[in-house]
């Protein structure tokens, strides 16, 4: 991978939950010391539960100024068990005071037309987020997981969505991970964020991490996420870290 990420390895999943909490508490304070809002995007899978575990109990976070977005979303009603919104709601939104108007979910009326749903979500992020000098929306933080095949968001290996250079949000109709219809942020947006954090737990991710860091020929989508120096973080627990342990430095050096 081109990026020089900050790699933090912690002993166990519990420590990962504590570290991502500390990271977000600090980052949100820093952002809110100069701006009116903290714009953060969540992906699905195991991430929301890891992120919310300690964060939801923190009383020193200005959640009223958080704006929550979805790095990818399954095209289904918002109360469907597949919905990433529902997952983030259950893990975090139901437990902290983020105004509902600050939660930017997919338009539930468009879930049967993923292309339109993606275009609509693009217009949401273009309206809500600051744009950089290339007109690309800039998130303060994007929280990502990886799949065993090296996908991140809903950018799957060898799928055309990985090549997208113009759209900020695109759709997929044949995702290899069910459900098949989804929308996803694209690499231009991931790579324009002020910070991107991969939060990874478990031995099932060890080989995938090796491919992402050391085998560019594998072209794993997560290996193309590179927002630039100082902006990419990998928080990994010991069981997932075999191939990047050597990159890790003590946590206290970062936050
Ligand atoms: O909606 C989704 O399917 C996710 O956003 C997806 O990209 C997820 O983050 C990874 O597949 C990792 O999932 P796990 O953390 O559950 O392995």
From TrEMBL:
InterPro entries: 6-phosphogluconolactonase_DevB, 6PGL, Glc/Gal-6P_isomerase, NagB/RpiA_transferase-like. Keywords: Hydrolase. GO terms for biological process: carbohydrate metabolic process; pentose-phosphate shunt. It comes from the Eukaryota. Its EC number is 3.1.1.31. It holds the Pfam family Glucosamine_iso. It catalyses: 6-phospho-D-glucono-1,5-lactone + H2O = 6-phospho-D-gluconate + H(+). GO terms for molecular function: 6-phosphogluconolactonase activity. Pathway: Carbohydrate degradation; pentose phosphate pathway; D-ribulose 5-phosphate from D-glucose 6-phosphate (oxidative stage): step 2/3. It is an enzyme of class 3 (hydrolase). Transmembrane segments: none annotated. Residues 15-234 form the Glucosamine/galactosamine-6-phosphate isomerase domain. Hydrolysis of 6-phosphogluconolactone to 6-phosphogluconate. Belongs to the glucosamine/galactosamine-6-phosphate isomerase family. 6-phosphogluconolactonase subfamily. This is 6-phosphogluconolactonase.
